[in-house]
Amino acid sequence: MTYLSIKVRGIVQGVGFRPFVYRVAQEWGVKGTVSNTPAGVDIRVHGDNGQVRLFLDALRDEAPPQAVIEELRVSETEPFEADSFEIAPSGGDGEKSVLVSPDLATCEDCVRELFDENDRRFRYPFINCTNCGPRFTIIGDTPYDRPLTSMAGFTMCPDCEREYNDPPDRRYHAQPNACSACGPTLWLADREGRRLEGDAILEAARLLGNGKIVAIKGLGGFHLACDATSDLAIGELRARKRRYAKPLAVMVGSIKQAKGYCEVSVDEEALLASTKSPIVLLPEKEDSPISRRVAGRLGHQGLFLPYTPIHHLLMAEVDFPLVMTSGNVSSEPIVTGNRKALRELSGIADGFLLHDRDILVRYDDSVTRVFEGKEYPIRRSRGYAPYPIRLTPASRIEVLALGAELKNTFCLLRGDQAFVSQHIGDMETLEELGHFNEALASMKRLFSLNPQVVSHDLHPDYLTTQMALDVPLPAVGVQHHHAHIVSCMADNRVEGEVIGVAWDGTGYGEDGTIWGGEFMLCDEKGYRRLAHLYPYPMPGSDACIYKLHRMAMGVLSETWDNPESALARLRGLRDVGDEEGAVLIMQLEKGLNSPLTSSAGRLFDVAAFMAGIRSIAQYDGQAACELEAVALGTREHYEFILDQSNEPWVIDTRPLFREIMADLETGTDPGEIAGKFHRTMALAVVETCVELNKETGIGRVALSGGVFQNKLLLSEVVQGLRTSGLEPLVHYRVPCNDGGISLGQAVVAANTYAS
Ligand code: ZN
Ligand code: ZN
Ligand code: FE
């Protein structure tokens, strides 16, 4: 007889793990108990040696698809009595370290039942099972049991109760288990909140078919939906939401439909259909019926598949793709409550598809893309968070990192687990700050995290910097681009020194200028700035991010060493009024409100402006994305000079802009200019890294910062580095943009605090 105690750690709650253990125990005839604890799942078994061994093998090899076993600790234990195998009540004490499962897209079995007239859940909009459904968004506390979720208020009917208590059933202990007799209900309301007659799904579909906008309560917040093929409906949505230009996500009914609108590779198809069900950025097809107003001139669409029963029911009733954008008022976090939705979205939506299962955690859709067969995240949220990023080596201390300002996340680091939060959004308003604090409190509670150190950006004006200084913990400031590179290192589980290339729009530099085209010799502790792009003045400072001709003026004035002559050239590209011209010259001559920046993002803007793509950006990065979209493949490039006379080296891009101006005079095609510009920027990265490798002997190159969301640049750089015998490190678990900053901050703080 063998008596064992088995402790299983990882994502083992809410994924059908205990029923699985129960079935395996029956199969091999072992006796004992299994239970949820705040740390995971604990099992006690006895049986003869052979039985117990086979039981253990099955535990390891046959775990349910959504379970992630991170650790399985087996030890001998005192003999105990048991004449059957049972699921014991959850234990409530001890350290909370169980990993909470992200929400999971509706599984195939549930979809089949949803559309099966003979099933008792036919068309029930909240169907779920142990393999699918809401998790993180309905959890108030751990262990993950119904009384601690927003399902607590729904008492199961006898049929549901039977499934819930029947170990072989696929709804055994499925905490959100429900049916139309006992569970949450769905209804359609008008703008005043009045419940409308008729089938909620059919009526919502009818509104959408008539070009109306419907607010739909989802897993982690509201969506605003409309017909993605209707210019009119989208125009209305954009005007009412005051989201004039940013691309909108589109939900399609199936992979087959997705392929009608976009090019979809095997890897992209797998991502679309995964239980994470993210928005995947895909190259748009020429003849796609999706309105140009969805993604403008970006050349790609963000598509995703239905991931809740409500989506499946709705998509079955409409014969067009749906714009599904987060239901928020411009620059505020996504709305989660019915009353708040009616109050805040009534000026936008014509109808409201509401339900009475509360959303406890805000959870935006994730956005991702594929690079070289691997995932390349843009926004890490639903389906991913709060699953931790595993790190090597483990941290000795617990750290809270607050991130930067835009596209923010925070990160709680403990041991080898980095809990990078779901996407929080921009941190500029009180509402956004509220969302941040709410998400932080819930994460700390769920995982019993108690950070000893707080880490933050060096930018004195960021809200997150202010917050860090208000927290009663020792604070560690981390330079923005250092954080980007260390986040890429941590993402790739790389330690020690690397050459880091951090290219982005804006980051606070330690010399008081704005950085963003940086080459650093870097490790987890510190960095040396070895090279950077030529710094240009930004006349009018942040105004340059949107008024691209202003940034172009900054570039031209350095390129021709004379503001007057620069203005004349600028006027060749665009009308500039006398007054504005005088202000620009005054700002540049006197250095008034014209900080210097080495930002790579700004140079993409200027190239796009010069190529005639646009002169006003409606959001940060728009012009650069459009420049990428029109770029033609070319082996030609412009000149640049790597000036190695001083440390840090400077990559002088003035010859490049002189050549673009010359190309314009000969009437070169904008696509040609865009292609040559991308190639030049890629060569600048590769050549600089090759020279830095000669100096330092270091061959690993970490690529990070929002500019590397540019797939054309990224692939040219990666290929160029490899051809030169260097090893590129590319993000695959966290975004290269500021959504990944908190991870880098946390790792730097863990390595520098008290050491
Ligand atoms: Zn299911
Ligand atoms: Zn029921
Ligand atoms: Fe950045």
Annotation, overall tally of beta strands = 30
Please give the largest β-sheet: 10 strands, mixed
Number of helices: 24
The percentage of residues in β strands lies in: 15-25%
The residue ranges in which pLDDT falls below 50 over 5 or more consecutive positions are none
Report the end-to-end length measured between terminal Cα atoms: 51 Å
Which structural class is indicated by helix and strand composition? alpha/beta
Radius of gyration from CA coordinates: 28 Å
Query: What small molecules accompany the polymer chains?
Result: zinc ion, fe (iii) ion
- CATH T-level fold name of the domain at 186-355: DHBP synthase
The averaged pLDDT comes out at 95
Strand order of the largest sheet: 6-13-7-8-12-9-11-10-14-15
CATH class of the domain at 186-355: Alpha Beta
Architecture per CATH nomenclature, i.e. the level-2 architecture of the domain at 186-355: Alpha-Beta Complex
Give the helix proportion (percent range): 25-40%
General shape? globular
What is the structure about, briefly put?
The protein has 755 residues and is an alpha/beta fold. Helix content is 34%, strand content 20%.
Walk me through the structure:
The protein is of the alpha/beta class. It contains 24 helices and 30 strands. The protein is globular and about 90 Å long. The chain binds zinc ion (2 copies) and fe (iii) ion. One zinc ion binds at residues 107, 109-110, 128-129, 131-132.
